[in-house]
Amino acid sequence: MRKSLVAVLLVAMLAGTLATAQQGAQPANYSTAAVAGLPPAAVKAMNSIDADRIRVQVQELSSDKYEGRGTGQPGGDKAAQYIAAEFKKYGLKPAGDKGTFIQNVPMVGIATEPSTKVQIAPEKGQPMNLTLREDIVAMDESQNRTSHVEAPIVFVGYGIQAPEYKWNDYKDVDVKGKILLMLVNEPPSEDDNFFKGKALTYYGRWTYKFEQAARMGAVGALIIHQTDMASYGWNVVQTSWSGERSYLRNDGKPKLKIASWITGDVAQKLAAFMGTDVPSLIKQAASPDFRPVPVPATLTAHMVSTVRPFESANVIAMVAGSDPKLKNEAVLYSAHYDHLGVRSGITGDNIYNGAIDNATGIGILLEMARAFSVAQQKPKRSIYFAAVTAEEQGLRGSEWLGLHPPVPAGQITLGLNFDGLAPIGVPEEVEVTGADRTTFYPTLQEVAQAFNFKIMPDSNPGAGFFYRSDHFSLARVGVPAFSVNQGDKYEGKDRAFGENWGKEYTKKDYHQPSDEFKSDWDFKGNVKMARFGFALGWKAANQPELVAWKPGDEFEAARQKSLSNPKAQVRGTN
Prior knowledge:
Distance between the termini: 80 Å
Shape: globular
Largest sheet: 15 strands, mixed
CATH superfamily of the largest domain: Zn peptidases
Radius of gyration: 25 Å
Structural class: alpha/beta
CATH class of the largest domain: Alpha Beta
Oligomer: single chain
Helix content: 25-40%
Number of strands: 22
């Protein structure tokens, strides 16, 4: 009897310990009073968001069986089907093509073959043969199997035409048929009214530079890589631009035959041909009086590509709103499910699992979708969830979503995007770059206060994160949108912990095979971020008026266009 009693007591104590541990794995629930404006049914659904469910989703999607979720690769397609099945399991309604969860995205994969040759020949001296990956990464965006280029090189500074800032790096010089050498980033500024001060605008992004070069009639572009200006090292460029890259198929836009990055060492040799050096070119380009400078050299390239048309998929689901009129409008949540897939020719682990980037965002998206589906009361506007493809390829999936939204862009009140939320603790801050540009910002501030969040300013404004994630594709068609992320300060840790983690992740794991699931990750923070996102979406869905960009914002005109012609496909101006 005594032994039995001891055994019972031990079992009870163990059960209590396990229960305590399990309860400790979840953050505290919120009350209706704490999150003012949310009805009890909404708060109950929000509190059901669960750390273990997010953990399971992140572990699943970042496992090797999805082979890095590459765009146009079997693993990426498998991930899309998995997400669709989860939406269906939760009871959400399909919002893709033809009554399904899948929105087909017509794409073409382009892979530069090793037989590609790139040479730069100065007017005086020996030609310089560039080695792929080591000296240059290059893509033929024309979607042709082969292209031959032989053209003079012109240095065009930052390669920017920005009339609102009275800036023109082209100065009416005809660059048709030429190769444009340019700097990444944009002119340095401390003035918020000039290229937004320290914050990078879209003009500083490589995507804009290639687009603008093609619009100007150039046949190619060479972006000079500098780690401090790009905000990432050459290893990230190598990884991101090796293997197959994906583009929207036949989108009607002009294309470059050679869209490329070159190392700082190659750029230094080109500068030497001009009798100068890269620091001097950077200084020269910072002047509004800069004019294009011919480089006394010709680039010759024989581009050989594997060109593969294919269909990729955005996965879209919805929860119908409760108001007879407002249910035709929507809040749109998004996160990208793709990563870099499997890369051949790499020794050792060649699966880019993308656990943080962005299985975490999808885990949060799925758990918010489940929570909205179980809510006994629904918000007034409908709620859409979009798991998008090809973010790593240049926001291609969300670009297609923005041009072909499940409801007209003018009827989407707010876009909330989730990308790369580190499961390393419970954050005390949120980073919502761009939210202050919208009329929704006061509401966001109220919700942040309810969650005991401080709103952290952009930790690295020079990196231009607002223009590097999928919410930007919605902003370009006028939808007020921004990404929701945690800041650097975590419970029980000093700020240096978060800052150092971010630096180490960028240096060692970002776009590398080492971005893999870790068994010791703490998902309580992901729960808090998901609940915060849930509350933001519910609030936006119930506000009387549509959210707007603040007067004078760069996306205000696109918003007005979408509102005046709600069924139009509105293309951004940049």
